[in-house]
């Protein structure tokens, strides 16, 4: 189904229109802002403006990628989806209903639908205990298996993530597994609760290059088999293109562009998306001539700002060769296109055709 070519990744074959098209999202961030108050010395406090008015919808059977450099707010949004924080403003909605961080049964019910897979599978598993213990715990807490069938359920989970022969893996300790195998166990543990949504926070970035594609293919297969809504967080736009039907691009806490994957790759509009593509050798090969060339040198294109004192307006303006006075004073409204692509950039005022 998916192929590896010359060590890089190519686009998936055109995905069919999902069965969930037109359905309401399973999980949704609506105009969410997150400011962290950080205490410094001498009783001083600083506000880190990590996320501003972000909206994102996750649908059944669909993979959405959230792409941006380190510190752009991707993990903050994933953690808001995982109810680890209460947003400063805006709402997280599960099937249209507002949800807030809770405890006990409320939290258990939520996490039986929404699971996270983290960057570091070693840290996310209990390293003192076997694969059996790690899986058993998840199945027990969520009442997904009884005393009689728990062993069978665990072997089934290992089969679903292709850790076979399953009996060879179930007694292993995390350090006896490769990084890719550990990530498969972490994914099996997430699947143990029968989730509807998986939030993958850079799930391949700590793995050997040789294992990355296998894990992406596993996620793609599980999305199909389990009809999951999947959020794939990455700073690598090539892997986003490989896996996701939709790409959303974030910069310094602001959502700058999004839409169907091939629209974003072939016709990037925001200068930051063009910078990301210019810095990524893989998809840039097929980007329209000149799309990335607004930057004289992508290697020397500056640094993201400090979010304790972010620039006014569009936070990308200090790095943007096309910035105007408007960019320095206010953040542009969203411009939507018939293709489903949208952008927040003063180069494309609402109503402009591209
Ligand atoms: N709990 C917190 N308290 C204070 N600041 C925070 C907290 N969590 C995140 N931040 C800050 O919010 C900003 C966004 O961080 P976040 O981790 O969401 O970015 P990211 O895009 O996921 O980056 P990375 O790819 O490095 O994980 C950063 O400036 C970060 O330092």
Secondary-structure map with pairings?
Blueprint: E1 4-5, E2 8-9, E3 27-39, E4 45-58, E5 63-67, H1 74-81, E6 89-94, E7 97-99, H2 104-111, E8 114-117, H3 121-124, H4 131-141, H5 150-160, H6 166-169, H7 179-191, E9 197-201, H8 209-226, E10 229-234, H9 237-243, E11 246-251, E12 254-260, H10 261-266, H11 271-279, H12 281-284, H13 325-329, E13 335-336, E14 342-343
Parallel strand pairs: 5-10, 5-11, 8-9, 9-10
Antiparallel strand pairs: 1-2, 3-4, 3-6, 6-7, 11-12, 12-14, 13-14
Helix pairs in contact: 4-5, 4-7, 7-8
The structure holds adenosine-5'-triphosphate.
Concise synopsis of the structure shown:
GO terms for molecular function: ATP binding. This protein is of the alpha/beta class.
Structural class: alpha/beta
| Total number of beta strands | 14
Task: State the CATH class of the domain at 19-113 and 195-343.
Answer: Alpha Beta
CATH topology of the domain at 19-113 and 195-343: Rossmann fold
- Distinct ligand kinds: adenosine-5'-triphosphate
Q: Keywords for this structure?
A:
354 residues; alpha/beta; Rossmann fold; eight-stranded mixed sheet; 13 helices; 14 strands; 31% helix; globular; binds adenosine-5'-triphosphate
Describe this structure in words.
With 354 residues, this protein is of the alpha/beta class. The protein has a domain at 19-113 and 195-343: 3-Layer(aba) Sandwich (Rossmann fold). The protein has 13 helices and 14 strands. The protein has helices at residues 74-81, 104-111, 121-124, 131-141, 150-160, 166-169, 179-191, 209-226, 237-243, 261-266, 271-279, 281-284, 325-329, and strands at 4-5, 8-9, 27-39, 45-58, 63-67, 89-94, 97-99, 114-117, 197-201, 229-234, 246-251, 254-260, 335-336, 342-343. The protein has an eight-stranded mixed β-sheet with strand order 8-9-10-5-11-12-14-13, sandwiched between helices. Strands 4-3-6-7 form a four-stranded antiparallel β-sheet, with helices on one face. It is globular and about 70 Å long. Residues 1-16 have low confidence and may be disordered. Bound molecules: adenosine-5'-triphosphate. Adenosine-5'-triphosphate binds next to strand 3, strand 4 and helix 1.
